[in-house]
Amino acid sequence: MSTTPAGAPGLDELVSRAEAWAAADPDPATAAQLRETLARAAEPEGSPAREAARQELADAFAGTLQFGTAGLRAALGPGPNRMNRVTVRRAAAGVAAFLLGKVAAARPGAADGTRPRAVVGYDARTNSDVFAEETAAVFTAAGVEAYLMPSALPTPVLAYALQALGCDAGVMVTASHNPPQDNGYKVYLGGRAVDEGGRGAQIVAPVDAEISALIDAAGPVGAIVLAESGWTTLPASVAADYRDAVVRLADPGLFPARELKVVLTPLHGVGGETAAGVLRAAGFDDVSLVREQAEPDPAFPTVAFPNPEEAGALDLALEAAQAAGADLVIANDPDADRCAVAAEDPASGEWRMLRGDEVGALLGSHMVRRLGRGQGLTDDAAPAAAADASPAASPAAPPAADAEPGGPVFANSIVSSRLLSRIAASAGIAHRETLTGFKWISRVPGLVYGYEEALGYCVAPELVKDKDGISAALLVAEMAAEAKAQGQTLFDRLDALHVLHGVHLTDQLSVRVADLGLLEAMMTRLRQDPPASFADSPVETAVDLSEGSEQLPPTEGLLWATRDSTRVIIRPSGTEPKLKCYVEVIRPVDSSAELAEARQAARAAMDAALDDVREALGL
């Protein structure tokens, strides 16, 4: 995200800023690009290129890219509101200053072991390798002991290396599943730079503001020193170490089945080799990659958006799966921290991608069994634990009453389904709800499994304290192979969960706006004239999430829960100019014979609730 000062600068001021930037830009390519934009902006009135060039100058130079809890993420190009070598050098200087301040004994030239240690990784997007090496150079010059990944690797490998190497920070240069023109800069803390609960996780407030202030204090780019050498390029074995650690998560004693035909796609990202290597090393020999998407390509030529959640992103994988007679499709996003799953639904005979909440529940049930807490699908205690579907007064439910103190904990974001909490309760496992994002989920004490609806799963926080699409893929394959060996599918497992705990149907509505002020106006409208019901069920609980609670820190958003347990959460996106609305409908099921009818009722209620959301927003 960026900030634009009040009173947008005029053209003369924008041109002045751009000319100064071009003169100081250390990157000849972006300097030349900027000079071309300036030339087009100066063309005579009526030129088709003039207005576009002037708009580009306004967007690139009227505001400044702000460092937040997600780090930096923006389009590549010249200017303070873009990702480029200037913004990256300044960000690296700010992070280095933060680490030097946090590690009390750190100072340039200090003995080994007393300086801050940081590991830097990167994906295969345009300039990711350049940004990563310059980060290592800035760190080294500032007195931070820097380690650079040996090649473009998945984000989970960087998050693993942070903990495995005992570093104080990790930087990942990636824009994850953003469009090809974007890049980003993500920061994790560990070691001596953060308290124990945050080690290995992404930063949270107020650390982002502290680093942002240090970036502002870094001065002009010419004042930032880059070392010519002195950092350590890690050996290729760092990726092999991650792979071996993930492979050890497989439990062939409890889940011996390995007969499974898998089609895997990294969506032109960096996860293909690592994910396929993990699956094969764990005994899943029949794994094929989608040929057109197997190699890293920063242009992402076969997809409109390299995000497995987007319509059409899995088309090639589904075609390959049907042609090969595969059992399962696994898709990772370009930096492989997310995992999408698709299979043939026996009810329709059609292939479909499972929703993130569906995979989250299936993995939760599978984790129950891996923890030795029962069968996950057939516990006798489960129906009683799930019987009360009424919403709690608080948006964050307490742990299961019979959960052992200090025992394992499941967690998911507040906008994800409540089904995981019921699965946990049936197994006597504590459950927590958190704010959106793994920077919160991964901080839950005692966490053994966490997920969020946006295809993010953390199945081994002791290895990777973040979402990890590769380790999740392994456990999905383990689960699917066992189901196949028993003559079942993942959809049969999902049916069993819904019979046991009730149908939990989730859906979303996103409202994109051109003016960020409209988001505030819509939230104000909802506060002043809140809906009284959804799908003809009266609202019984209304929570303004901005006020916070004992369970959750404050965040901008509103939550309503109705008499029949329908839940609606509306919040502004933290990364895009849009309002996000999350709806969940729950319908009880007494037997498998009633499942289809319960699902139809849930779908009808969902459609009605979404219509009510649109009406409440004035759409």
TrEMBL record:
A GO biological-process term: purine ribonucleoside salvage
Positions of the Alpha-D-phosphohexomutase alpha/beta/alpha domain: 66-190, 241-344, 406-491
Low complexity: compositionally biased ranges: 379-403
Cofactors: Mg(2+)
Region Disordered: start-end pairs: 379-405
Domain Alpha-D-phosphohexomutase C-terminal: from-to ranges: 567-595
SUPFAM superfamilies membership: Phosphoglucomutase, C-terminal domain, Phosphoglucomutase, first 3 domains
An example molecular function term from Gene Ontology annotations: phosphopentomutase activity
Keyword Oxidoreductase: no
Top-level taxon in the UniProt lineage: Bacteria
Key words, A-Z: Isomerase, Magnesium, Metal-binding, Phosphoprotein
Family: Belongs to the phosphohexose mutase family.
Protein name: Phosphomannomutase
Organism name: Sinomonas atrocyanea
